[in-house]
Write a structure and sequence with these properties.
By secondary structure, the protein is α/β, with parallel strands linked by helices. It is built from eleven helices and twelve strands. The structure holds S-adenosyl-L-homocysteine (SAH) and iron/sulfur cluster (SF4). Iron/sulfur cluster binds near residues 120, 121, 168 and 222.
């Protein structure tokens, strides 16, 4: 998989310092750089021609050095429950998606971190075609700002951000952290760190860096099984951490940052949804102070997995609750527009 240099291609990939350097090189003052930064980072305007208070000479100069956005909305669908799924075409023609999920008191943006995914969990649409490339920090930031604008237009301003779209965030660690820091920045959208969650299948090097960086974003592990015998039937363990490694990493994260992690558990009918697995998971959860987020499977047509029936889900929840484990069940959202991870991009690219 190729990763692109995030600091050279597009205006949205520049840091504020890089923008200042360029602006000064063009003969303008850094005050002008601050104005351009405001358009990009606060207003989410990535098209130089729309930056009306910027002198034409500087706009032309910047455009020559690092052209404005190449991101285009290709497809936009809204489900009956209000879930809005947006497919973006990137500069190189590749497709990624983002979803806006309204709930009672919150509106969540689901962000992708890569095109495709190299991990290839057996149930997941994002991994079917393998990993294509990392998204640049500018691409992720533009997607966030576009989705944020759509949420404001729909009168449901975004309250939460989850990095749970296509791709494995820990394989694109640096670019993602640059994006999240910018989303969180006071001179940008100033979006609360506690409302941001990064979900990982468990990539040891990335998780270690994330914990060591003490960033204030939430961490969620896609665990999916209480033991490795089962986990390896769901997640290829060549690149991903084992159950015990994840448990240790969760404890370390709690010790180092004071923050509890969440364990995500996709429920696959007849695979990991039985009372035995629930009891084993309950034992595993001891001392971690973590919460479990159960995700009933959204079937992917090409793949041979099903969603458990409601009875099995309820039983699983009860077994965890009996032991005082904090548990939530993700409600089904946007099922009529294929709003499960990776599904729409996959449909369009085939
Ligand atoms: N690669 C990261 C983040 C993206 S996947 C990770 O695996 O955590 C985000 C979450 O969506 C994961 O917990 C994954 O298990 C879940 N998911 C993927 N495809 C799904 C599907 N078809 N139905 C339900 N959950 C799915
Ligand atoms: Fe990649 Fe996450 Fe899908 Fe696994 S679940 S293939 S890690 S995107």
């Amino acid at each position: 998989m190729t990763s692109r240099n995030s600091s050279s291609s597009r205006l949205s990939d520049l840091s504020r310092e890089e923008l200042e350097t360029l602006t000064k090189a063009s003969g303008e003052s850094s005050y002008r750089a601050g104005q351009v930064w405001q358009w990009l980072s606060q207003k989410g305007v990535f098209d130089l021609d729309s930056m009306k208070n910027i002198p034409a000479k500087l706009r032309t100069y910047l455009n020559d050095q690092c052209p404005a956005s190449a991101l285009a909305i290709t497809h936009n669908s809204i489900a009956v429950d209000g879930t809005e799924k947006v497919l973006f075409t990137l500069e190189d023609g590749k497709l990624i998606e983002s979803v806006l999920i309204p709930a009672e008191k919150r509106t969540t943006i689901c962000l992708s971190s890569q095109v495709g995914c190299a991990v290839g969990c057996y149930f997941c649409a994002s991994g079917i075609d393998g990993g294509k490339r990392n998204l640049t920090s500018g691409e992720m930031f533009e997607v966030f700002m576009t989705m944020r604008r759509l949420s404001i237009d729909a009168d449901r301003p975004v309250t939460n951000l989850v990095v749970m779209g296509m791709g494995e965030p820990m394989f694109n660690f640096e670019n993602l952290m640059t994006t999240l820091d910018r989303i969180n920045a006071k001179d940008g959208p100033n979006f609360g760190a506690r409302r941001i969650t990064v979900s990982t299948v468990g990539i040891a090097a990335g998780v270690a860096k994330f914990t060591a960086s003490k960033r204030p974003y939430n961490l969620a592990f896609s665990l999916h099984a209480p033991n490795d015998r089962l986990r390896r039937k769901i997640v290829p363990l060549e690149s991903a951490m084992t159950v015990e490694e994840i448990r240790q990493a969760a404890l370390l994260h709690l010790r180092e940052t004071g923050r509890e992690v969440t364990f995500e558990y996709v429920m696959l009918k007849g695979v990991n949804d039985g009372p035995r697995e629930a009891r084993e998971l309950r034992r595993l959860m001891k001392h971690t102070q973590a919460a479990v987020n159960l995700i009933p499977y959204n079937p992917v047509p090409q793949l041979d997995f099903d969603r458990p029936d409601d009875g099995a889900i309820d039983r699983f929840v009860d077994i965890l609750l009996e032991a005082g484990v904090k548990v939530s069940v993700r409600r089904r959202k946007g099922a009529d527009i294929n709003a499960a991870c990776g599904q729409l991009a996959l449909r369009k690219s085939h």
